[in-house]
Design brief:
By secondary structure, this protein is an alpha+beta fold. It has nine helices and four strands; from the N terminus they run ααααβββαααβαα. The model has no long low-confidence stretch (mean pLDDT 94).
Length: 231
């Protein structure tokens, strides 16, 4: 296989998303369909490159198809108050066993004006999965803290898990309130993320930045999958 040429994101990809956020309706989208197609292809090519490069250190993703990793831009609005038909971002999830349909911890790239990021972890498990996450944090928090505190990891993702809006306000029943990982026990996900500025997204350094971030993320993902799915 010949190495792929470095991907540089088209500046219009972020501009299209910005315009879409301000004109989130089917009529505008239809009139700007060609811009969407170009932007989607831009993210698709980035995903293809990332699969190849991440596959050099994570063989479990090296044979994924980019089409299976890229999320649809159409929103499911059946049970939502916000009836906007389109997402305001592109998302691609490079993870074993199905790309964006995978439950495994993988590499999530989110492209959005003033909101882009690289993330990984176990996201939105069911109630039994949440209980398992908490049991893992209860017994494995020292290993997790060691991973988060590693110098390169902390540089990209900080040394803490992301506190999402659904986190509990108090430590759940069954765990001591003075637990050394009390704040993590309140969480319903094990998630880390690295914010990315628009200037980086449109930079020639973007692809290399993402690849390096994914390389750093690899150990965390491997640990998440091992303790959550294999034990």
């Amino acid at each position: 296989m010949h190495p792929l040429k470095l991907t540089i994101m088209n500046e219009d990809t972020l501009l299209f998303l910005k315009d879409l956020a301000n004109n989130n309706n089917r009529e505008w989208f239809a009139e700007n369909r060609s811009r969407y197609d170009c932007a989607r292809q831009d993210v698709m090519e980035l995903t293809e490159h990332l699969i190849e490069k991440i596959g050099e250190f994570d063989e479990e993703v090296k044979y994924l198809d980019a089409k299976d990793c890229l999320f649809r831009i159409y929103r499911d609005i059946r049970f939502r108050e916000d009836k906007s038909p389109y997402k305001r971002h592109f998302g691609t999830y490079i993870a074993k066993n199905g790309g964006h349909r995978s439950k495994y911890s993988g590499y999530y790239i989110h492209i959005e004006p003033e909101g882009s990021m690289l993330a990984g972890g176990i996201w939105c498990p069911d109630s039994a999965g949440i209980k398992k996450l908490r049991d893992i944090i209860d017994t494995e928090h020292e290993t997790l803290r060691e991973i988060l505190n590693e110098k390169k990891f902390a540089k990209f993702f900080g040394n803490n898990l992301v506190k999402t809006a659904d986190a509990l306000k108090t430590v759940p029943r069954g765990y001591p309130k003075d637990h050394p990982a009390a704040e993590w026990l309140k969480l319903k996900n094990i998630l880390v993320e690295c914010p990315i500025k628009d200037s980086m997204v449109n930079s020639e350094k973007f692809e290399d930045f993402i690849v390096e971030g994914c390389r750093v993320l690899y150990r965390f993902n491997h640990w998440c999958n091992e303790v959550f799915f294999e034990n």
